[in-house]
Amino acid sequence: MCQEVGHTFGLDHQDENFNNANLGTCMDYTSNPDGPPSNLSPNAHDYEELDIIYSHFDSFTSVGASTPQASPALNNPSEWGQLVKVAHGGKTQVFERDLPNGQRVVTFVIWA
């Protein structure tokens, strides 16, 4: 479950070989999840990756921000904006679209 939630937030596997030693993260394939070390939860690298993915690189915050008056249509991939990240062999993608009022819409897509 931890690994699937990690994928939803944009994390990739740290190792896909079941026979390698545990890395201490749920984002590692393993034959022995209990370890040692345990692979039942994220590790420091996973949190660093989330920080990279979701950190603001400007002085603005989205906490408490108002939503745009007119939400853009997002029914078609051509409306999602610029593709900025692809992961998991193309199964997850992140798009960004700038709005006229200085706001931005980020669309996270999981292709099933």
Low-confidence stretches: none
Question: Level of helix content?
Answer: 10-25%
Please give the domain count: 2
The count of β-strands is 3
β-strand percent reads 15-25%
User: What do the pLDDT scores average to?
Assistant: 85
Oligomer: single chain
Largest sheet: 3 strands, antiparallel
Shape: elongated
What radius of gyration results from the CA coordinates? 17 Å
Total helix count? 2
The SSE string, one letter per element, is HHEEE
Q: Output the strand order for the largest sheet.
A: 1-2-3
Terminal CA distance? 17 Å
- Class based on secondary structure composition and strand pairing: alpha+beta
Write a structural description:
Strands 1-2-3 form a three-stranded antiparallel sheet, with no helix packed on it. A hairpin with a 4-residue loop joins strand 1 (82-87) and strand 2. It has two domains: 1-56, no CATH class; 76-112, no CATH class. The chain is of the alpha+beta class and 112 residues long. It has helices spanning 2-8, 44-54, and strands at 82-87, 92-98, 104-110. The mean pLDDT is 85. The chain contains two helices and three strands. The chain is elongated.
